[in-house]
From TrEMBL:
This is Uracil phosphoribosyltransferase. NCBIfam families: PRK00129.1, upp. GO terms for molecular function: uracil phosphoribosyltransferase activity. Residues 6-208 form the Phosphoribosyltransferase domain.
Length: 209
C-alpha cells in the first residue's frame, strides 16, 4: 500500500495558512505556492541516493558525496499544477517537465483529459506528479494512469491539500504511488470542494474567478 506523508514542517504549515486565507491575493498566493513547493521538494528528495567522489579542497583531498545521477521528471496537472513547477525546479533544476492537461467536469466531477506531453525517456525516469488539490482523486488517478499507460514505472504524487476521499482513491487505484501532502483536510462538500481547503486553486493562482 502506498505511503502517505503529511509534512508537519513549521515553515510549510505557516505558509499553508496564508495560502488558505481568502484575503490572500493572487500575487501572494502564487508566491506562497511556489515557496511551499520548494520546501516540499526538499523533504521528498530526502531519499535520493548518493555516490562517493573525490574533491580537491584548498587544503587536501576529501571523499565527498554527489547525487547518483537519478533521472527525475516533474509532471504538473494543468492548470493549477503549473503553480508548483518552478518551486520544484528550484531544487532539481535538471529535471524534465511533462504536462498532463485535465479539467474536472463541474457536473459529474469526472476528469476530462485534453493534453499530454511527457519526456521521451519516460520509462527511465522517476516522476513527481504535482497538483495543489487532491479532492475526489479523479484527476490524480487519471494523470497517473496516463503516465503509466506511456510506460512510467516510478511515480510519486505531491499536493498542497488533500481530502481523505482523494487519498483513498489514489491508494486504491495506484497502491505503488506514495502521496506527499502539506495539509490533510476534513472532507469534501456537495460540489466536490475540499473543506476547509483553499477554494479553487486554479482560479486563485491565475486570477480567473
Ligand atoms: O481530485 P479531483 O476531484 O479530481 O479535483 C482536483 C482537481 O481539480 C482542480 O482542477 P480543475 O478541474 O479545477 O482544473 P484547473 O486546474 O484547470 O482549474 C485541481 O487543480 C485538481 O486537478
Ligand atoms: O477544493 C478544491 C477541489 C478541487 N479543485 C480545487 O481547486 N479546489
Ligand atoms: Mg480549477
Amino acid at each position: 500500500m502506498a505511503k502517505v506523508f503529511v509534512f508537519d514542517h513549521p515553515l510549510i504549515q505557516h505558509k499553508l495558512t496564508f495560502i488558505r486565507d481568502k484575503n490572500t491575493g493572487t500575487k501572494e498566493f502564487r508566491e506562497l505556492v511556489d515557496e511551499v513547493a520548494t520546501l516540499m521538494m526538499f523533504e521528498i528528495t530526502r531519499d535520493l541516493s548518493l555516490e562517493e567522489v573525490e574533491v580537491e579542497t584548498p587544503v587536501s583531498t576529501a571523499k565527498a558525496k554527489v547525487i547518483a545521477g537519478k533521472k527525475l521528471g516533474i509532471v504538473p496537472i494543468l492548470r493549477a499544477g503549473i503553480g508548483m513547477v518552478d518551486g520544484a525546479l528550484n531544487l532539481i533544476p535538471t529535471a524534465k517537465v511533462g504536462h498532463v492537461g485535465l479539467y474536472r467536469d463541474p457536473e459529474t466531477l469526472q476528469p476530462v483529459e485534453y493534453y499530454v506531453k511527457l519526456p521521451s525517456d519516460v520509462k527511465e525516469r522517476e516522476f513527481i506528479v504535482v497538483d495543489p488539490m487532491l479532492a475526489t482523486g479523479g484527476s490524480a488517478v487519471a494523470a497517473i494512469d496516463s503516465l503509466k499507460t506511456r510506460g512510467a514505472k516510478n511515480i510519486k504524487f505531491m499536493c498542497l491539500i488533500a481530502a481523505p476521499e482523494g487519498v483513498e482513491a489514489v491508494q486504491k487505484a495506484h497502491p505503488d504511488v506514495d502521496i506527499y501532502i502539506a495539509g490533510l483536510d476534513e472532507k469534501l462538500n456537495e460540489h466536490g470542494y475540499i473543506v476547509p481547503g483553499l477554494g479553487d486553486a486554479g482560479d486563485r493562482l491565475f486570477g480567473t474567478k
